[in-house]
Amino acid sequence: MNHDLNKTKREENLRTGITIALVYVLMFLLSVAGTVRNSKEVPIKEPQRSKIQAQDAPAEKMAITETQDPGIFLKAADQEFLEGLTGRFQEGDLEGAARLVEANQNSLNEFPCMYSEGRLKREITDGAGLVFLKPAVVFYGDFKNGVPDGTAAAISVLSLEEGRRYDYSYGNWKNGKMNGSGECGYRYYDGVTQDITVKTSKNGMFQNDLMQGEITYSSTNRQGETAVWQFQTADGVIVRNDRWIRDTDANGAVIYKLLANGEKDHAYALSERAIGEDRWKNLILFSQNEGGGTKQ
Length: 296
Fold this sequence. Notes:
The chain is an alpha+beta fold. Helices cover about 30% and strands about 40% of the residues.
């Protein structure tokens, strides 16, 4: 009888153990199923973020592409002209530059434009290059913020009744105006038949395009005779001293005369009105709105 009782207890303990083991197995399976489900749900959000980023990326790339200047198409002859013109400016051959500009005024038709590093572009970028404000108004040198800034030269080519001429300005520039040492003037280089002044030069210091302090002015006639004067200016206006002789012309109007350096036969004469005008200034203004060029 005791043997049967013990057998019964062992069977109950076995069933209890099996039940507990099944419970643990079930809990383990449920835990594994939950982990697998969670691991599958996490990546669902990540692809959604990636898709949004992928949609934004082309827009950013497109914005960058749209701001780039594709440049202006150049024919081989136009490229040769611009390279030749760059060389003339670099050599200081302003007459050669003027002749090239005159011969190629129909080459370009979009203004302003800049030729730099072998490309012609609509935007005036920082750095060195050629800038055309008009077909016959060209600047060469350093540019910053769309204007000459540094060392630069400019020519304006004109076809006048008395002959073909170029006006010029070169020297130091700041914020689009001549500031510092420089020179301006004009040259008739072809077609002159009359006895006129064929070359002039105004050399000195500039402040915002106006000459300041002592300047040297020279004038050359058709026969090649050159006279030189030195005098003082302030804000582009002559400052008279006792070297200026007050006189009258044939009509009795008041004039002021200044004898050329070391000469008695050459006098520079100005009317009373003209001597008070701001005539001593940069001849070629840089203006993108008005096209620039010689200010008469």
